[in-house]
Amino acid sequence: MSVKSAVRAVLKIAFPYQCLRCGAAIGSEGGFCPDCFKKIRFIGSCCPNCGRPVSENERQWGMCAFCKGKKVPKSRFVFIYDDALKSVILKFKYADMTFAVPYFANWMISAGKDVLEDADAVIPVPIHRLRLVRRRYNQAALLAKKIAKIERKEFICNNLQRVRNTSSQGEKSAKERRENVKGAFALRKPSAIAGKKIVIIDDVVTTGATVSECARVLLSAGAAEVRILSLAVVFKS
Ligand SMILES: [Zn+2]
Ligand SMILES: [Zn+2]
User: Which residues of the chain register pLDDT less than 50?
Assistant: First the structure.
């Protein structure tokens, strides 16, 4: 064995795992390399209601600008969705990075203590069945299933349906996004929702139009309360 390959073998034992963002070898499973860790933005102190990061000003006023004058479901997030996180989310959505599910789920459980503790059930934001065929899995459903299992909550799957295959929310304004998802969701069995405190699980919340529409459908079926827990949130300060 050459010195070079011996060194490589030793390094592989010391750093057998891959950074979830750049793929660099790291010593522990399910994390980021030091470089990526510096770039990724975890949410620190957040608004007790909407879960978005609060500025020093907002802390002094005791309110968050996003929540002001709006009825926002109680929400919690792990990361701020920005250019640094984008590649992680895209790999998770489209490139079979399903091995990351347990790590993401555990981060979400830590960030989401307030919304999970007395909840009865978790529901993933559904994707349309045509999209499911193309992508093979719904990343929000994988997260919800794992969270339900660890937290011993009911996992409500295939009840909330995306009945309309909406166009991409990509370049749309907040108002256009709300219009786009109106009537896009329906429940197969509304009676299974009644009286329950439910946590909607998603991977990225942008304007909140999609999760709000899901929440509206669940509340109209008699859910006692609806909350949101997502891996990331788009936040412009
Ligand atoms: Zn990295
Ligand atoms: Zn807020």
Answer: none
